[in-house]
Amino acid sequence: MKNIVLFVVFIFGIVFMQFAQGQTVDEVINKYLDARGGKDKLNAIKSLYMEGIRQMMGTDVTIRITKVQGKLSRTDFEMGGTTGYTIITTNQGWSFIPIRSTNVEPMPADRVKAMQPDLDIAGPLVDYAAKGNKVQLLGKDTADGKSCYKVKLTLGSSGKDITYFIDTKTDMIIQTRQMTMGMGGRNAGTPPKEMEMITDYADYGLVEGVMFPHTISNPGAGPSGGSTTFDKIEINKPVPDSQYKPG
Q1: Rounded CA separation 162/178 (Å)
Q2: CATH number of residue 231's parent domain
Q3: Which of 173, 178, 141, 177 minimizes the C-alpha distance to 159?
């Protein structure tokens, strides 16, 4: 009889711990969403425009980001009188980077598919289960010297992992880490290598009731490193059809 009682207690303990862990990760995510302004407000954003300056390798680059929920993610840049852009839609993508090519280059289908999460303005943590994503609380850690909850999200669309560091005091995301394909080597034909991309988020401020980071930076040297300060963020403004095509 004693063994049966102990067995029941053991099983109940396992179930309780699994339930508590699931509730804990949801609680962390929900607090983050509330701190941003609430899930409903995030889901109500149908378009987003962000404009700022990126300091990269000693050069100032003007950045303009235009997004339409589920349809478009476009980044235009201007540096020293030279302009370029990248465009991602639901089934096509293009890039025009003058320092690499004088022609508009269509993106490979696998690249377009991999970039589809960029079309989700609210982000993969919002309604994560409905989007086919999985989350796991990895406990606590530190980022930028601050105590954080560490949440791993696995994208259902690609299986890629994104690790979020959520400040335990502000409930805001202050850092993300994910593996991405870097640039190839200097020698022709050298394939790109997978590398960890660290992104820091700071200077949160309200934009029509929703908190946005106004400084986004990637520590490190080289073309992938730099810091962007956004001085203009607009939501739910009309986006011309011309933004969906090269030009």
Answers
A1: 5
A2: 2.50.20.10
A3: 178
Greater pLDDT, 171 or 190: 171
CA atoms within 13 A on the CB side of 108: 3
Cβ-based neighbours of 227, under 8 Å, separated by 6 or more = 54, 55, 215, 216, 217, 218
Please check the confidence at residue 21 and state whether its pLDDT lies above 50: no
Q: pLDDT tens digit string along 99-128?
A: 888 899 999 999 999 999 999 999 999 999
pLDDT (average), residues 184-195: 57
Q: Measured between alpha carbons, how far is 164 from 184 in angstroms, rounded to an integer?
A: 27
How many structural domains is the chain composed of?
A: 1
Question: Do the Cβ atoms of 52 and 231 come closer than 8 Å?
Answer: yes
